[in-house]
Amino acid sequence: MKRTSFRRAVVPGVAALALSLAACGGGDAGASDSEGGETAVSGSVAVDGSSTVYPMSVAAQELLNEQNPEVQVTVGEAGTGGGFEVFCTGETDISDASRPIEEDEAAVCEENGVEYTELQVATDALTVVVHPDLAVDCLTVDELIALWGPKSKATNWQDINPEFPDQEIKLFGPGTDSGTYDYMAADVIGDESETTRKDYEASEDDNVLVEGVAGTEGATGYFGYTYYEQNSDKLKAVAIDSGNGCVEPSAETAQSGEYTPLARPLFIYVSNKSYTDNPAVKEYVDFYIENLAEIAEVGQFIPLSDELYAETQAALEGLQG
């Protein structure tokens, strides 16, 4: 899922942050040589996985390269499931994920001798959007399940709630390789089959989902909060009522726990061997976590709370040995 607009959107922020980091000495990109000088770390790093985490990992790459262009980081966005497929066979160093690794994926990693460390890097608010002219402003969790559940036969918004408009429903959503899809299916809908309904326009490209919802009357879809923010001029976000009233997606409501059950953690999974054996991987990961709050801000993500950041730091320290 390529987000062709991302680089244009964040480069000014990246440049400003790079200057700030350089001024305060953040993200040391060099290692001392035997004569007391600095020898820049060089090498390549392969990252793939979640399209939701993709902008953040690209921001980390661009910021690091402002200080050390010798570390070459390739960031792909095959989806969380697709990322774990190549990570657990040793083809990548880092896997971006918008959900925790699943048992079958962990088993493949174990089978191939790929040991890893999970690092939470941000919080996201999975955002349900509708066509801006659709008079639907809030959905209960039950209505969300009636809309997207695997047993749903709803074709008109009045099938969901008789007070909703008499308007045909058009559904746009991520494909089954997406961690966003997995989260909606397993953690929001919670059906034993861990699937959503299948009669919708699926795409691994969030741009396609945005344009589909924005250009179709009665349309709805869902993706990460960051991508909604980037397209808020053409979409309307729907508040979610989990039993305590309608709550709109935002950084504040996701961090506070009010935006349930659609707030979710975002991760990078680091190959322990790559981190230990490849100085470029260590350089990138250390920089990523050291500057995590700033990188999240540049990528327009919801930064971790102090408590969660301390947990991420502790996990990284364990990886450092």
From TrEMBL:
Superkingdom, taxonomy of origin: Bacteria
Coiled coil: none
GO MF: phosphate ion binding
Signal sequence, start to end: 1-31
Record-annotated PBP domain positions: 37-289
GO biological process terms on file: phosphate ion transport
Keyword annotations of the record: Phosphate transport, Signal, Transport
InterPro entries referenced in this protein's UniProt entry, alphabetically: PBP_domain, Phos-bd, Phosphate_ABC_transporter
Family designation: Belongs to the PstS family.
Function: Involved in the system for phosphate transport across the cytoplasmic membrane.
Protein's recorded name: Phosphate-binding protein
Naturally occurring in which organism (per UniProt): Nocardioides gansuensis
